[in-house]
Design goal:
With 180 residues, the protein is of the alpha/beta class. It is built from seven helices and six strands, in the order βαβαααβαβαββα.
Length: 180
């Protein structure tokens, strides 16, 4: 068990765990009981960037103007409407994430999710000015059948992220020195 709260607006934004972690399931149930939404993604649909854009557009009801690129995904994750979030927040759960670990785009995918969630979980814009909406809880969970903490952590480490590991998890958030 960790001190993470994926029902709230605190870091980390992306959590990578073994499949079937009881604390994750409990927090997802709690988010739903509060009115939030849990969106599940099949990793088979996410093995290429185009599949990510398609799956996220469909599940999160992204607008028709969604540009189907990484920057547009960050913008849309920041602007999710109440219908998609329940006005409370969302958790995106990627099941069988083992399929993605060696994909070329995997580190960028994690960074993009952190960027979008960092914005959504804040009530101020990138310049520090108040937004016209409250912060919305937004987190992403990658569930692995064969979880190798060190391998997962080394795969997603990059200059714009802070990657932490603990007993049974890897977590990622934006490095404020790089992004704020």
């Amino acid at each position: 068990m960790t001190a993470f709260d994926i029902t709230g607006t605190s870091k980390p934004w992306v959590i990578l765990v073994p499949q079937g972690e009881a604390w994750v399931d409990q927090q997802l149930s709690r988010l739903e009981s509060m009115g939030g939404r849990v969106h599940r993604f099949d990793s088979r649909e996410l093995t290429a960037p185009e599949g990510i854009y398609r799956s996220f557009a469909q599940a999160l009801r992204l607008p028709g103007s969604f540009g189907r690129n990484w920057d547009a995904l960050v913008d849309c994750l920041d602007d999710l409407c109440g219908e998609v979030t329940g006005g409370v927040g969302i958790a995106g759960v990627v099941q069988d994430a083992d399929r993605l670990l060696e994909a070329e785009h995997f580190p960028l995918f994690v960074s993009v999710l952190c960027q979008g969630a960092d914005r959504a979980n804040s009530a101020v814009d990138l310049d520090g000015f108040p937004l016209d909406r409250p912060a919305i809880a937004e987190h992403f969970v990658f569930e692995f059948r064969d979880f190798d903490r060190e391998k997962v952590a080394s795969r997603i480490e990059q200059p714009d992220l802070i990657v932490t590991t603990g007993d049974g998890f890897v977590a990622a958030t934006l490095d404020p020195d790089e992004w704020h």
